[in-house]
Structures are given as structure tokens and as C-alpha cells.
């Protein structure tokens, strides 16, 4: 008898299960660029979404890198085999805006009834991905910004317990650190996101005309005429004086490694590396993060975002969009989206709602996570100005490469900083003119 | 050994051992990195002596890469590419070397030029072809006025899509050509005198002679196709069914991203896993490296 | 170079070569044709508008002094890496072919570098060659500043040459060994009877007999160094410092694959192809003459 009822129970379970399966789930594809452990976090989020309901199925495909994700989406779009949703890095934003291949996020949210509070996004993040008129065409996703990592033990040697607020103070600290016997006070590399883009945003310096390119494709770069050149000359002086060192993976350690193992007393890097420093730091090292120094005290504008946003591609069926909308809802919600990402990676919440949720749960008091709120403070340091909105330049990856190569030329003594930067500007402008000509007749939204 | 040459043997052994060390050093680094825990592997400098975490790293990598499932796919693809290339290349080289027709040099160069442009450069249009492999023919027929719709042949998410584009390169043809050129003309002459046709000559004389070269080519092609990752990453979106082993490396190897923690120990363990089958195949194919039997001098 | 004895069944010849031509046409020439057409237009990544601009893209390429330095670096890289890896591989193959004790072990270990996937190669090389942390850091302790690929263009170029040569050695070794093994033992024995020593036999007997393979490897190595080297650059130097290792193919990769400027990449691809075809042609014309076929 007992056995019989067990069988019956089993049978009914099978019937129920097959009943649920009879209603075929609507599938859609989502391509992402994150790799390694971060890619696993994305895959897990998809799995959680799929388990959270039984109507839709997200097929999530890692593409092996941000650049590959963009490239593969283009290839697939041209063959009409593209995914419905794709994660595209900050530098790809302008290509997607001009592509004619996308379903703008704001329109999508309206058509598929996703209740998005666009004003809840931190302005420093929203503006980076918004059109010049402020419309959001993609959903900000994994985001970070730049901060100063500093070694409290080393700073204690010069009798200070607070991070420097201005670059002038920082320079004085470096000198003092050297005199106190610290071999390397500051580790830097030639990354432009940190040294040029964040520096310019925070200090209200232009990178290009027409509001850093938001005003149209005719923009020209002007970073060679700002305080950026002096800033880089300072770096070089610090290097020559033995205060600072270049640390790249070619030398053996990248910035974060050389900070975490105590080789260098400070560095500037993405807040997303906060967890890495925590888990790889030298035994017993006391450290913290602070907002990047500014040129003039009291004159700080917001820093800008780095990371990626989610784009909806055009040309899919309403059913697929329906499914995608459910997924987007899931991954942008404060708890299943923002909190999940913040807890499992070094990325930060992107809306006030997400930030408040994390704060209320004591996230920023927990060991290992405390200090990350500095990133939010930095992103919201001021109202967003035309110069701290972001950078909207065509083929920006190539411009970054040009600046980087010319900085290397200056630091290796092949030319002086002014010549190097003005060469970089000339070459950048050629890139921009090519881009403008390629998109002749198209209007930058 | 034909004669005794102790001094030369000593020098030879020394050079061999030194080259062995130089060549294996990077592999050693990979192995050592795979055997430490996360903290140790991120120390600078990393220790040069293996640690005790090899097996847990291997099993972590094995699970992260879903290797139970993907190894078989890789074997299918690598064997498919290798076999396809060996056959097709032998046939085309035979045609170019042993037949006289006017176009043969042109055809040889047409095949040869395929070595000169990497996939990355032509990836966008190649993807379009993979999405509809009969597309080019349809376009040509339409262009010459034959309006016809060929069925769509989609190679995305399929073994053919993973295999065929990789077979279409020239290394094999060129290698066979080089080898066929060394075969004495007398052999072909004798075959002609016997009245045996070209195909019989090919199967009964040329192929047996090519054994060693074929083994070398097979080794190279197996490893080469095993290590392809850009193409599979592009055309396979159904990772559950068609992912290959090397593709899985991107899941464990961090890219140059902000905030990607370098979990090198697992990444290197995954590399060791992915490295194993090609090494086994290499050892297996070494058996075919046999001393030639037919004198090729006159 | 042509055979004296050939068959004359043209239909059979066509049938034999057809599979290869079909594959090459569908998966190489058709897509490549489209990609190269973009060299004469300004192609938008997502399509939808490509204006015919004639030689504008080529003017951009040739008018850029940085491009010419990239051509120069690529030539140095290809030749140095090819020579280095061929010399090492042929020596090892000759020695292994002598079947000294342990040759079975050498036979497959020498091949291992080729079997290692790219990401691991990058990590290993960075580790070995980093001036502060790696094996060469010892050199820097005695001669400070002697080795620094992050700041010294020459060091960086040397680094990628060594990495490329390292990855090609296994490939070359396999083919050399196969060629040596195809030489009948009777020939060496005959040489030994005549009183020729080991070294003499290598130089006068074995090397001439493997020239067809040598020629094959020269052509393949040079082509490969021009065409497939961006992986090594990407994971070790990133083209720097100050473009010292900005190889032609790496520039194509960054302009096209990363920068999405397909037209500029296409124009550079044509230049690269023409250059390699010319180099290969020269090799066929001048080097192949000295190849000892039958």
C-alpha cells in the first residue's frame, strides 16, 4: 500500500513536471563580454533568473572579452543571427548609438512595460550612456569608477593619517615618503581611462570640443592644451626623482599587484579592484581607498563611470522581447540585479535605490567591502557638468591607443611631453575625421 | 648507432639537455602556477617549486570548464579537421604536381594565398558565409542571370561549421607538394609503363611513401585545430552542445578588464587539462615516424 | 620546378583539386573579397552605408610614418624569429635523429611548446621576462636597467622575437624530424663506409636531402610571423613601448577588430598580402632554385 502511494506520488510529480514543460519556455540570447570569474558571475545570474520563473529562458553566451563581444555582435547582426540582448563596454557606446541596429532602452522599457525610474540612476553613470538630449538608449550595468589606493602604514611614516586631497599635497607626500625611506611612493601606468579621462572629468578639463563630443561628430580633441600635460610632466618628474615607478604587467606586476604586495605605497585604479587588493594584500597591511586627488581644493566635479551597459538589438519577435524584458527587469532590480553584482564583484550599484538597499543591509560596514562607498561619493561629488558627463568620441579605442603610445614615447625620453601630446592630438583628430566621414549624413543622437 | 663518437655524443647530449630546459621552462611555470593556492600564485616573484594544490585546482578547473562535456566536441573537431585536411591536401597536391595543365600554377598560388590573411581580418564576412554557406553560389548564379534560390545551409552551431572553414587552408597542400617533388620520377615512369593509372599510383606508391610526412602533418593539424578559439567562440552560441575545450579557457582566464581578479592557479590548471589530449595524440603519432625504406637518390 | 613525368587526364586532375578549391572559395575568397572591397570604401561596422572613396584609405596608410616603421619592425621580427627557430629546430632534429640515449623523450618534449595554448604562453613569458620578478631579474641585479621591455623598445622587440621563435620551434622540429626520418638508413651507412664523420654527413648528406622541407618551413615561418603574430604581441607588449612592437598585423587587428575601422584595416590587409606574396615569390624564384628535390 505504502509502495503504491509512493509510486502514485512519483507519477503525479512526473505528470506535473511534463505539464510544466509542455508550456515551452520562450528563449532569447544574451551575449556578454566579461570573462574569468566575472564571466562566471554573469552565467550564474542567468541561471538564477531561469530558476526564478518558468516562462522564459535566457541563453547566456560569454564571448571571451569586451572587444570580442562587440565584434561578434556586429558580425552576427550583419548575418541576421544576432542576440536580443548584448553587454557592450563604455567605449563601444557611440558605435551602437549610430548603428541603427538597436532598440533604444527607453522605448523598449515603455513598449514592454518595464517600470524604470530613470532618475534613480546616478547622474555620473546615466549621462555617460545617455544621448545628448538625455535619453537612455541602454541599461547601465556593471559599473565602476577610479579611486586612489593608499597604504596607511607608509603614510603613517610621514605622520599622516589621511589621504592627500590635492595633487600638490600628493607631490609633497611623495617627497616626504621618499625621505622616509619608501622606495616607491606611487605606481602608475599609461592607462588613459585613469590618467586622462578621470583626471579631466574631476578637474573640469575638456578632452574634446563640443562638450567632449556630445555635441556632434565634428568634435576635435583638445587634451593637449589643458593641465593634463603638466600633470603628466609631474608624473615624469616623480619617476625621475625616484618617487614613483611605472608598474605594468610587462615589468612583472600591474598596478594592483604592486600596491597589494606593498611594493608601492599608492596607486590609482578602478574601485572594481577593491576585492582583489583585499584578497591578495601582504599580510597585515593597512590600506584604504580615497577619492582621486584634485588640482584645486574645493573644486571637484564628479568622476566618470567605466564598465558596460546592456543594449537591446532590433529585429526580434515580440515574444523574445517579452522574455528579454523580464530578464532586464531581473538584472536591473536593486536586489536581484545591483545587489547581486555588488556582492559578487567589485562593481558598484548604479542607482540610488540599489545603493540605499546595500547601505541599509550594512554592506558598507562589512569587512572587505567597507570603503567602496567612496566610489559613489566620487561619482556624485557634484552636479554633472558638460565636461564630466563622459566622452562621446568615435573610435575612442584607437584614440586611447594613440595617447598611450605617445605617452610611452614621452616617458622613454623620445620626445618631450608637449610634442608627444600634440602629436597624439593630431593623430586623434585624424581618427575623428575618418569617423565623421564614415558616418556622413548620420546624426549623433 | 653507426660508429662511436664519445666527444660528439657528450656535446650533443649537453645541447639537447640545455634546449630541453629552455623549451620546457615556460611549461614548468604553467605547471607550478597550477599547483599553488590563490595567494601564493599572486606573490611576486612566484615560487619556482610546485605546491600542494595541484589536484584541487585541476578539479576546480575541470568543473568550471565543464570539461566532461566539451572534450568530446574538441576531439570530434580536431579529428575532423585533421582527417579532412590530410585527404584534401594530398589530393590537391597530387593534382598540382603530377598532372600537367595550364592552370596548375595559378591554382597552387590561389591555395597558397589563403595563408596570408588571418581570420581576424575577415571575420565579419566569414561569419556571413557560415550563416549561409550556399550564399556565395546563389549570388554568383544570380549575377550571371540565373535567378534561383538555393536552400539556406546554416553552419552556425554545428560540427561542420567548426570543421570546414578550418580545413580550407594551404599548409597541407604545400607540404605534400614539397614531398611529392622529392619522389624520383622513375617511380611514376614505372607506374606508367605498367599501365597503372594515376589513382593507382597515388594509392599504391605515393601514399605509403608519405607516411612520415602525413604523421607530422597530422600532429601539427591536430594541435592547431585543437587550439583554435576565436572561430568557435564566434559561431557557437549553443555552448551546452558545441563548446570546445579551448573555448572554455576564456571562462577561467581573466581578460584585460577592470577588476578581473587573476585566478591564475585555476587558469593554468585549465591550461594543463586542455594541453593533455594534444600531447597524448603527439606521442601516439610518433609511432608513425619511421625510417624511410626507399632510396630517393638516383 | 616541374616534374618530368606527368599524367595527362585533365578531368581527373580537376576532380582531385575540386574539393580544396571549393572550400577555399567559400571560406576564404568570397569573404576576403568582401573584406578587401571595403578598402576602397568607408564601411560602417553595422553596414548601412559605404561610400566609394577610391584610394583614400591607402593614402592614409602610406602617408603615415608610423606605418612605415611598423613595416620595418615586422620585417625584422619575421626574419629574426624564422632564422632563430629554424636553426634551433634543425640542430635538435639532427641530434635526435642520431638516436642517442633519451631520444624518445626529446622527440615529444621538444614539440610541447607548440601544443600550449596562447594564454598560458603569455603568462609564462611575462613571468620569465619581467625585469623585477622573473628569471631575468637576476641579470638586472648585476646590470641595473639592462633589461626592461616596458620602457626599452629593443628589449620589447627581442621579447616577442624570442616568444615567437619559441612557439615555432616545436612546429619546425616535427617537420625536420619527419624529413630526416625519410632519409633511408642505407644512405647514412654508405656515407659512413666512405669514411665521412657524423658532422660531415649532416652537412653534406642530410641537410641537402631535407632542403625541400627546409624551404617549406622558411616560407611557412616567414608567413606565419607576418600573419599570425598578433596573439603574442597582444599578451606580452601590446605593441609598445611607443609602438616599438607594433607589427603590421597587430595594427590591422587593433584598427579593425578593436577600433572597428574596417576600411582602414582592409587597406592594410591588402598591403600586407601584397608584401607577403612578393616575399614568397622571391623565395620561390631564388631560394627554391637551390632546393635539392630529386
From TrEMBL, chain C:
Topology of this chain in the membrane: Multi-pass membrane protein
InterPro entries membership: MetI-like, MetI-like_sf, UgpAE/MalFG_permease
Residues covered by the ABC transmembrane type-1 domain: 71-283
Transmembrane segments: 12-30, 75-96, 108-129, 156-180, 201-222, 262-282
Main location as per UniProt: membrane
Keywords: Cell inner membrane, Cell membrane, Membrane, Transmembrane, Transmembrane helix, Transport
Subcellular location: Cell inner membrane; Cell membrane
A family per Pfam: BPD_transp_1
Assembly: The complex is composed of two ATP-binding proteins (UgpC), two transmembrane proteins (UgpA and UgpE) and a solute-binding protein (UgpB).
PANTHER family recorded: BLL4140 PROTEIN, SN-GLYCEROL-3-PHOSPHATE TRANSPORT SYSTEM PERMEASE PROTEIN UGPA
Family note: Belongs to the binding-protein-dependent transport system permease family.
Purpose: Part of the ABC transporter complex UgpBAEC involved in sn-glycerol-3-phosphate (G3P) import. Probably responsible for the translocation of the substrate across the membrane.
Protein name: sn-glycerol-3-phosphate transport system permease protein UgpA
Organism of this sequence: Neoaquamicrobium sediminum
Amino acid at each position: 500500500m505504502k509502495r503504491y502511494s509512493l509510486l502514485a506520488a512519483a507519477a503525479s510529480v512526473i505528470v506535473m513536471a511534463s505539464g510544466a514543460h509542455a508550456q515551452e519556455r520562450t528563449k532569447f540570447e544574451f551575449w556578454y563580454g566579461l570573462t574569468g570569474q566575472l564571466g562566471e558571475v554573469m552565467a550564474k545570474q542567468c541561471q538564477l533568473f531561469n530558476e526564478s520563473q518558468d516562462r522564459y529562458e535566457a541563453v547566456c553566451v560569454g564571448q571571451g572579452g569586451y572587444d570580442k563581444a562587440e565584434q561578434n555582435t556586429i558580425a552576427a547582426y550583419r548575418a541576421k543571427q544576432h542576440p536580443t540582448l548584448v553587454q557592450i563596454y563604455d567605449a563601444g557606446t557611440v558605435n551602437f548609438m549610430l548603428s541603427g541596429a538597436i532598440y533604444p532602452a527607453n522605448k523598449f522599457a515603455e513598449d514592454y512595460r518595464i517600470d524604470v525610474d530613470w532618475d534613480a540612476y546616478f547622474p555620473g553613470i546615466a549621462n555617460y550612456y545617455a544621448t545628448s538630449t538625455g535619453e537612455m538608449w541602454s541599461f547601465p550595468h556593471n559599473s565602476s569608477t577610479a579611486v586612489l589606493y593608499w597604504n596607511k602604514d607608509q603614510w603613517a611614516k610621514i605622520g599622516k593619517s589621511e589621504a592627500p586631497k590635492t595633487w600638490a599635497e600628493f607631490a609633497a607626500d611623495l617627497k616626504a615618503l621618499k625621505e622616509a625611506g619608501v622606495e616607491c611612493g606611487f605606481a602608475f601606468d599609461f592607462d588613459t581611462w585613469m590618467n586622462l579621462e578621470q583626471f579631466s572629468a574631476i578637474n573640469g578639463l575638456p578632452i574634446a570640443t563640443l562638450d567632449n563630443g556630445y555635441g556632434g561628430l565634428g568634435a576635435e580633441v583638445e587634451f593637449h592644451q589643458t593641465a593634463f600635460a603638466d600633470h603628466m610632466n609631474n608624473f615624469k618628474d616623480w619617476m625621475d626623482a625616484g618617487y614613483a615607478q611605472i608598474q605594468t604587467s610587462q615589468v612583472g606586476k600591474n598596478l594592483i599587484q604592486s600596491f597589494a604586495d606593498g611594493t608601492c605605497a599608492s596607486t590609482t585604479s578602478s574601485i572594481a579592484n577593491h576585492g582583489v587588493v583585499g584578497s591578495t594584500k601582504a599580510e597585515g597591511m593597512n590600506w584604504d581607498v580615497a577619492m582621486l586627488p584634485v588640482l584645486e581644493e574645493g573644486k571637484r566635479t564628479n568622476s566618470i563611470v567605466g564598465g558596460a551597459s546592456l543594449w537591446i538589438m532590433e529585429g526580434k519577435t515580440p515574444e523574445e522581447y517579452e522574455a528579454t524584458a523580464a530578464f532586464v527587469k531581473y538584472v536591473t532590480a536593486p536586489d536581484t540585479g545591483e545587489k547581486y553584482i555588488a556582492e559578487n564583484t567589485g562593481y558598484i550599484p548604479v542607482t540610488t535605490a540599489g545603493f540605499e538597499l546595500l547601505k541599509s543591509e550594512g554592506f558598507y560596514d562589512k569587512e572587505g567591502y567597507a570603503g567602496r562607498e567612496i566610489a559613489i561619493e566620487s561619482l556624485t561629488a557634484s552636479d554633472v557638468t558638460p565636461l564630466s558627463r563622459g566622452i562621446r568620441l568615435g573610435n575612442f579605442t584607437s584614440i586611447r591607443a594613440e595617447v598611450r603610445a605617445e605617452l610611452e614615447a614621452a616617458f622613454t625620453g623620445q620626445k618631450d611631453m608637449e610634442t608627444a601630446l600634440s602629436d597624439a592630438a593630431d593623430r586623434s583628430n585624424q581618427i575623428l575625421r575618418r569617423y565623421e566621414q564614415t558616418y556622413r549624413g548620420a546624426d549623433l543622437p | 648507432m653507426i660508429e662511436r663518437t664519445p666527444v660528439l655524443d657528450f656535446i650533443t647530449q649537453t645541447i639537447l639537455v640545455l634546449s630541453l630546459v629552455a623549451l620546457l621552462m615556460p611549461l614548468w611555470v604553467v605547471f607550478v602556477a597550477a599547483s599553488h593556492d590563490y595567494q601564493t600564485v599572486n606573490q611576486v616573484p612566484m615560487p619556482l617549486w610546485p605546491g600542494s594544490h595541484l589536484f584541487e585546482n585541476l578539479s576546480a578547473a575541470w568543473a568550471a570548464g565543464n570539461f566532461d562535456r566539451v572534450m568530446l566536441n574538441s576531439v570530434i573537431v580536431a579529428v575532423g579537421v585533421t582527417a579532412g585536411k590530410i585527404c584534401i591536401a594530398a589530393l590537391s597536391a597530387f593534382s598540382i604536381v603530377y598532372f600537367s595543365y595550364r592552370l596548375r600554377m595559378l591554382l597552387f598560388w590561389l591555395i597558397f594565398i589563403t595563408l596570408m590573411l588571418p581570420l581576424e581580418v575577415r571575420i565579419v564576412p566569414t561569419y556571413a558565409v557560415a550563416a549561409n554557406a550556399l550564399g556565395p553560389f546563389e549570388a554568383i548564379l544570380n549575377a550571371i542571370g540565373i535567378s534561383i534560390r538555393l536552400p539556406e545551409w546554416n553552419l552556425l552551431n554545428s560540427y561542420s561549421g567548426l570543421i570546414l572553414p578550418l580545413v580550407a587552408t594551404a599548409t597541407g597542400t604545400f607540404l605534400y607538394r614539397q614531398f611529392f617533388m622529392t619522389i624520383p620520377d622513375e617511380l611514376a615512369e614505372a607506374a606508367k609503363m605498367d599501365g597503372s593509372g594515376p589513382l593507382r599510383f597515388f594509392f599504391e606508391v605515393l601514399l605509403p611513401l608519405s607516411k612520415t610526412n602525413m604523421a607530422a602533418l597530422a600532429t601539427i593539424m591536430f594541435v592547431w585545430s585543437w587550439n583554435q578559439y576565436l572561430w568557435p567562440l564566434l559561431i557557437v552560441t549553443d555552448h551546452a552542445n558545441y563548446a570546445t575545450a579551448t573555448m572554455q579557457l576564456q571562462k577561467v582566464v581573466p581578460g584585460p578588464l577592470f577588476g578581473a581578479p587573476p585566478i591564475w592557479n585555476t587558469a593554468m590548471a585549465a591550461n594543463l587539462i586542455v594541453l593533455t589530449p594534444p600531447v597524448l595524440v603527439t606521442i601516439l603519432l610518433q609511432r608513425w615516424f619511421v625510417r624511410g625504406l626507399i632510396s630517393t637518390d638516383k | 620546378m616541374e616534374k618530368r613525368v606527368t599524367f595527362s587526364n585533365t578531368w581527373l586532375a580537376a576532380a582531385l583539386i575540386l574539393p580544396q578549391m571549393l572550400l577555399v572559395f567559400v571560406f576564404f575568397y568570397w569573404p576576403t573579397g568582401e573584406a578587401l572591397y571595403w578598402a576602397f570604401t568607408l564601411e560602417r561596422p553595422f553596414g548601412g552605408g559605404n561610400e566609394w572613396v577610391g584610394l583614400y584609405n591607402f593614402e592614409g596608410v602610406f602617408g603615415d610614418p608610423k606605418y612605415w616603421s611598423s613595416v620595418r619592425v615586422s620585417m625584422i621580427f619575421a626574419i629574426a624569429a624564422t632564422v632563430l627557430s629554424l636553426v634551433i629546430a634543425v640542430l635538435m632534429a639532427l641530434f635526435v635523429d642520431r638516436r642517442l640515449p633519451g631520444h624518445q623523450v626529446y622527440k615529444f618534449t621538444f614539440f610541447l611548446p607548440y601544443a600550449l595554448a596562447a594564454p598560458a604562453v603569455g603568462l609564462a613569458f611575462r613571468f620569465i621576462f619581467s625585469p623585477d620578478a622573473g628569471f631575468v631579474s637576476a641579470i638586472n641585479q648585476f646590470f641595473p636597467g639592462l633589461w626592461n621591455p616596458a620602457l626599452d623598445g629593443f628589449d620589447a622587440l627581442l621579447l616577442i622575437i624570442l616568444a615567437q621563435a619559441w612557439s615555432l620551434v616545436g612546429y619546425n622540429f616535427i617537420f625536420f624530424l619527419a624529413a630526416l626520418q625519410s632519409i633511408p638508413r642505407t644512405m647514412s651507412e654508405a656515407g659512413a663506409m666512405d669514411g665521412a664523420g657524423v658532422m660531415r654527413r649532416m652537412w653534406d648528406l642530410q641537410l641537402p636531402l631535407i632542403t625541400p622541407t627546409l624551404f617549406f618551413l622558411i616560407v611557412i615561418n616567414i608567413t606565419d610571423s607576418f600573419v599570425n603574430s598578433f596573439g603574442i604581441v597582444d599578451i606580452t607588449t601590446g605593441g609598445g613601448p611607443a609602438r616599438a612592437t607594433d607589427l603590421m598585423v597587430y595594427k590591422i587587428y587593433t584598427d579593425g577588430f578593436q577600433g572597428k575601422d574596417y576600411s582602414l584595416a582592409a587597406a592594410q590587409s591588402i598591403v600586407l598580402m601584397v608584401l607577403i606574396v612578393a616575399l614568397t615569390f622571391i623565395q620561390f624564384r631564388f631560394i627554391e632554385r637551390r632546393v635539392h628535390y630529386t
